Amino acid sequence: MNRTTRVTRALAVSVLVLGLGACSAESVDKAVNKAVDETVDETYEVTYEVTGTSVDEISYHGGGGKAMEPELETVKSPALPWKKTVKLRGIMPPAVMPLAVDVNGTDVACTITYKGKVIKEAKGDGMLSTGGCVAVSPIVG
User: Fold this and answer.
1) C-alpha dihedral over 51, 53, 57, 58, to 10 degrees?
2) What is the mean pLDDT of each run of 10 residues along the chain (141 residues)?
3) Ordered alpha helix ranges (H), 23-74
4) Which among 28, 27, 49, 36 has a CA at the least distance from the CA of 123?
5) Helix (H) / strand (E) containing 22
6) Which helix (H) or strand (E) holds 133?
7) Pairing mode of beta strands 57-66, 69-76
8) Which phi and psi (to 5°) does residue 29 adopt?
9) What pTM does this model have?
10) What's phi and psi for 4, nearest 5 deg?
11) Three-state DSSP class for 5?
12) Taking Cα atoms as reference points, which of 53, 39, 52, 92 lies closest to residue 70?
């Protein structure tokens, strides 16, 4: 490697370090989110299922938003059993969170299925049940 190449690389590294030092935490977060979304752009499908005696609402990651900041979609007063297949992207975690409030008690269960295999399941019972399921993106591992 010649002297000009070494000096050019050293100068480039110095500019990069100084530039990052001047960045705000917010701009670094935006840059990281953008890099993750652009780098991990593979999509995958999961199926959410919720069963139980009574559920007031179901919130879930439906594929909107950014991989590290997914938007929640919500269904109010869903008919049970409830089932929904969604397409997610990259490291976006599959998540479904049923909420049931009943003074007489209720039971709620949820599952997340990927390629026919249950990757997360949970159950809840009582007056306030939030038998939520959150899994790691199956394409990460």
Assistant:
1) -10
2) 37 40 61 58 92 90 90 95 95 92 79 97 72 86 60
3) 25-39
4) 49
5) helix 3-22
6) strand 133-134
7) antiparallel
8) -60, -45
9) 0.70
10) -65, -40
11) helix
12) 92
